[in-house]
């Protein structure tokens, strides 16, 4: 789910505070309360004169017929569409989630929020919380923000390892403390990404830094939200990266800092059921991949025949977006 908003119209300072403290993406208020929100904290405001304006950025549509569904699909190509159903039935929303881009629905309870987030296993683009109890708003926002996608990780069998020369490698320092089996998906090809373990393991060389993933060289791809990839060199403070555990469960990672330093590199070549895979990482004991049993293994201990976890897909990518065309990356 991309966005969670809180409706605070009629004005309620406590609701706005709850939205801010729980990490909501935006609040809906009357035009004369836009500045009141900005006095409380930094959050997007949906209102005439706000960061997102009605009609220009957001429209409300009530579904009464098939014609309304067609209109919503069209509108959602350029604007967020807040959909209302006369009895909050699931079928019209399933149709819209399958066809439309930026569909949002209003929810009044945690159960409704869970239902909206699970439609067609994809969920709506966003929800607007209409409840008036700050504690309930906090609970809904936190659950929706904590919900995680499950990725189907695959096994890569190591084929070869080769020390390379020096290169610029990227450390991603995140705002999250990661645990055993957790890290980020990185690789030479957007079609095959290796699970690079966070620096959360004790070792005799440096103190653990559980917030850090020593990801790889500047050219490598890293998975980011929305099923996209980005080059490691593009990342900066405030960006989002997809964290992944050995079980495939994802977790949101906010980039706090990126460190690019010149280091000796190591080429890792492997193969999965989807085909060949490769990545380059720093040639150091503290860089680890993840074995199928969830245990971390240092890249300096890897040998031909070992298996590690990663993510593989068939489609190529264009500017980080998955596309259906023939692309070969070596």
Q: Tell me about the largest β-sheet.
A: 7 strands, parallel
Radius of gyration: 22 Å
Q: Within the largest sheet, what's the order of strands?
A: 3-2-1-7-6-5-4
CATH class bucket of the largest domain = Mainly Beta
Instruction: Tell me the structural class.
Output: alpha/beta
Euclidean distance between termini CA atoms: 34 Å
Name the CATH architecture of the largest domain.
Beta Complex
Quickly count the domains: 2
- Topology, number of strands: 21
State which percent range the strand residues make up.
Answer: 35-45%
Low-confidence stretches: 317-321
Shape: elongated
Quote the CATH topology of the largest domain.
Endonuclease - Pi-scei, Chain A, domain 1
SSE order in H/E notation?
Answer: EHEHEEHEHEHEHEEEEEEEEEEEEEE
Q: How many H/I helical runs?
A: 6
Helical coverage, percent range: 10-25%
What number is the mean pLDDT?
A: 87
Provide a descriptive summary of the structure in words.
- There is one protein chain.
- This protein is α/β, with parallel strands linked by helices.
- Helix content is 18%, strand content 41%.
- The chain folds into 2 domains: 144 residues, Aldolase class I (TIM Barrel, Alpha-Beta Barrel); 162 residues, Endonuclease - Pi-scei, Chain A, domain 1 (Beta Complex), CATH 2.170.16.
- The chain contains 6 helices and 21 strands.
- Strand 4, helix 3 and strand 5 form a beta-alpha-beta unit.
- Helix 1 packs parallel to helix 6 and helix 5 packs parallel to helix 6.
- It is elongated and about 60 Å long.
- The chain starts with a strand and ends in a 7-residue tail after the last strand.
- About 2% of the residues have low confidence.
């Amino acid at each position: 789910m991309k966005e969670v908003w809180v409706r605070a119209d009629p004005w309620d300072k406590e609701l706005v505070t709850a939205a801010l403290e729980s990490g909501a993406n935006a609040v809906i208020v009357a035009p004369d309360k836009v500045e009141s929100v900005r006095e409380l904290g930094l959050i997007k405001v949906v209102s005439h004169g706000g960061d997102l304006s009605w009609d220009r950025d957001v429209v409300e549509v009530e579904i009464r017929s098939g014609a309304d569904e067609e209109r919503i699909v069209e509108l959602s190509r350029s604007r967020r569409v807040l959909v209302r159903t006369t009895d909050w039935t699931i079928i019209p929303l399933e149709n819209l989630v399958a066809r439309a881009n930026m569909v949002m629905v209003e929810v009044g309870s945690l159960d409704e929020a869970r239902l909206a987030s699970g439609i067609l296993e994809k969920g709506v683009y966003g929800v607007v919380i209409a409840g008036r109890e700050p504690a309930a708003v906090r609970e809904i926002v936190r659950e929706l923000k904590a919900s995680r996608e499950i990725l189907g990780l695959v096994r890569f069998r190591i084929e070869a390892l080769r020390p390379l020369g020096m290169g610029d490698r990227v450390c991603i320092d995140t705002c999250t403390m990661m645990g055993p089996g957790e890290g980020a998906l990185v690789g030479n090809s957007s079609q095959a990404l290796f699970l690079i373990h966070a620096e959360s393991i004790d070792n005799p060389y440096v103190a653990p830094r559980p917030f850090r993933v020593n990801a790889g060289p500047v050219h490598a791809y890293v998975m980011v939200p929305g099923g996209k990839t980005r080059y490691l060199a593009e990342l900066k403070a405030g960006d989002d990266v997809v964290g992944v555990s050995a079980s495939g469960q994802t977790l949101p990672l906010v980039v706090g800092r990126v460190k690019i330093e010149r280091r000796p590199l190591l080429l890792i070549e492997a193969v999965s059921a989807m085909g060949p895979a490769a990545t380059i990482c720093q040639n150091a004991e503290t860089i680890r991949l993840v074995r199928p049993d969830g245990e971390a293994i240092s890249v300096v201990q890897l040998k031909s025949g070992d298996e590690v976890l990663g993510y593989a897909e068939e489609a190529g990518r264009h500017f980080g977006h998955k596309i259906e065309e023939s692309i070969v990356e070596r």
